[in-house]
Design a protein that fits this description.
Two copies of one chain form a homodimer.
Chain A lengths: L3 E8 L3 E3 L19 H5 L1 H7 L1 H4 L3 E5 H4 L23 E5 L7 E2 L5 E5 L3 H12 L4 E5 L1 H9 L5 E7 L7 E2 L8 E9 L4 E8 L1
Parallel strand pairs in A: 1-7, 1-8, 3-4, 3-7, 4-6
Antiparallel strand pairs in A: 2-9, 5-6, 8-11, 10-11
């Protein structure tokens, strides 16, 4: 069965986004691009650190990561990423509101799943074949999969940033056991890799 | 003027101790030695990672780190560390309750400071001479010094542990700017070193 991985950027005080996420501030107020500065300013080492995340056979994400809207769909909204999203694979978006699949350029197809996290993962596994499935975010989605014991490998990319408030990674995740697999870093980020023990 | 350093062990979800710290559970419930397992099980690399902390010319700590008591002093309590504490230098303990200095074996002298964090640091700097001053903990004390812009170098030793609740490092520390100096690790801990920018 496909391995389930998760890569997520976090502030040193435990947040993956600041408060008040919106169209203008997808990572919330106060974040100002600081959680992912390493990806922008160190593109080569950043891409190397994100290699597992970038080579998944399928992805799962929360609706909040797909877009800022809530409730019924605005069908003009096709994600944050323009015509050719960086996934190049099926992406299963968790939502309470049904929507037809959305095919983008470059092989990304967004599927909208109303049956919950286990159904989304089941469909992602089927789509991924022999490749792994990546839980793409955000924190609320990652926390649900961690709490359910459904993540095999977690890479936390710790930015040297104190956000003070916002979306907390590990909120409501009490009983997960982590095994430290590796620690590495550059001048802008620390990469902490864990195996999640059942 | 003496550099001010701080070394502190933290769970990956941001806590330096679990809830309900007590005489029997100085790191709170649920911690069970897991935050400092790397120091016990990897004593050589642990000691190397703690070299700056262990070579300070003077220390500052909160009362909670000196002992579990509150209110008036129980003069029989002489710290958690037995007759010869590991500091071998003056230690300035923040408290609201005056107490005479307490001289221990091996060069540790506990001084009890009622004048607040700035007075404690001033006295520690005088005592340290050319050496650095280490803020020994706990989180509440470290957070006060960080918020006041009085820490130069912060080393967070991240244990692969999710505590879920307890004492949060960086609580109330909103505007601190961190510069990542180095990332390293072993099989049990990730060492993240920051310069704290004013």
């Amino acid at each position: 069965m496909s391995k389930v991985t998760c890569d997520i950027a976090m502030s040193i005080d435990g947040f993956t986004a600041g408060p008040d996420q919106s169209l203008d501030a997808p990572f919330g107020t106060g974040e100002n691009g600081r959680l992912t500065r390493w990806l922008v300013e160190e593109p080569e080492t950043g891409a190397a650190a994100m290699e597992v995340a970038n080579t998944a056979g399928a992805y799962v994400m929360g609706r909040n990561m797909f877009g800022p809207g809530r409730g019924a769909w605005d069908l003009d909204w096709k994600g944050w990423w323009g015509d050719e999203p960086p996934y190049h694979a099926p992406v299963f978006v968790l939502t309470h509101h049904p929507r037809e699949p959305l095919e983008m350029a470059g092989g990304t197809v967004f599927h909208f799943v109303t049956g919950g996290i286990e159904e989304a993962l089941k469909r992602a596994r089927e789509a991924a074949g022999d490749a792994h499935v990546a839980i793409a975010g955000g924190a609320a989605t990652v926390n649900q999969y961690l709490a359910a014991g459904l993540v095999d490998e977690l890479r936390v990319h710790v930015a040297p940033v104190v956000l003070g408030a916002g979306e907390r990674l590990f909120a409501g995740v009490a009983d997960v056991d982590l095994e430290l697999v590796g620690t590495s870093g550059t001048g802008l980020v620390s990469h902490l890799t864990y195996r999640v023990v059942r």
